[in-house]
Structure formats: structure tokens, C-alpha cells
Amino acid sequence: RFDWAGGQATLGGRHASLAIPDGTQDYLSVVYQLAFYPPPEGPLPVVDGRRLRRYSVKEAGPETVDLPLGRVEARHVRVTAVDEAEKGLEIWLRVAPPHLPVKIRILGGRHGTGVLLAESIREP
């Protein structure tokens, strides 16, 4: 639970509350924030449910991605932990609107690396 006015995040389970700086995101919101806003300058604070971590956001460039729905032009973005560069996300955002993620690679998760692929896109 985020208390933006108080600058606190209350985490679940055995994890306590912690202070959060302005601009903090939750782990899943990062994907959608990058779809609608330019990447932040400097480290991005992210709460993952257990702790606050700082992530580096870097554009890796345009790529054509082969997906179950066909070939899609995308913007490749790497979001990696500042203290552990092998942990984070690689995100491919569709260049054409809506700029939603069409491919996500989870790096260094507890269960290894995973990949999510878009199977369809419904136009607005």
C-alpha cells in the first residue's frame, strides 16, 4: 500500500513499512509507465513487495520482434537493478499505438528467466 503524502509504502507479510522517494513505482507499473512516458533520467526507485531497489532504465533501440501475432516493430528497453545488473526486465514496447509491451523478459528471478509474449492486440 502506498501512502504518497506520507512517503511510505506498507509491504505485505513479514515485510514492514519503508520510506519511499518521489517517483517510486511498483514493479508491474514500470512496464506501463515506460509505454506512456519517456524513460526517467537517473535511477528509478521501485518497490517489489519486499524492498525498495533502484533501477537503471536504458533504451536498447528499435527492433523487429517475432511474436505469435506476427512481426511487430518495437522499442527495446532494459530495466536493470543498479546493485545487481543481472536482475530486472527487458521490455519491448510496440512502436505503433497503443505502445503497450509486446514482449517482456524477466531477468534473474527466483525461478530463473521468463518470457511473456503478446498473442494478440486489440486496437482501441
How would you portray this structure in words?
This protein has one helix at residues 29-36; strands at 2-3, 8-10, 17-19, 25-26, 44-47, 52-67, 70-81, 88-94, 101-109, 112-117. The mean pLDDT is 86. The radius of gyration is 15 Å and the shape is globular. By secondary structure, the protein is mostly beta strands.
Content of β-strand: over 45%
Largest sheet: 7 strands, mixed
Task: Name the helicity range.
Answer: under 10%
- Average pLDDT confidence is 86
Biggest sheet: strands side by side, in what order? 4-5-6-7-8-9-10
Beginning-to-end CA distance, first to last residue = 31 Å
> Helices and strands, in N-to-C order?
EEEEHEEEEEE
How large is the count of helical segments?
A: 1
Give the overall shape, derived from the CA principal axes. globular
How many individual β-strands? 10
Residue stretches low in confidence (pLDDT < 50, at least 5 long) are none
Radius of gyration over C-alpha positions, nearest whole angstrom:
15 Å
What structural class do the secondary elements suggest?
mainly beta
Entry summary:
This protein is mainly beta. Helices cover 6% and strands 52% of the residues.
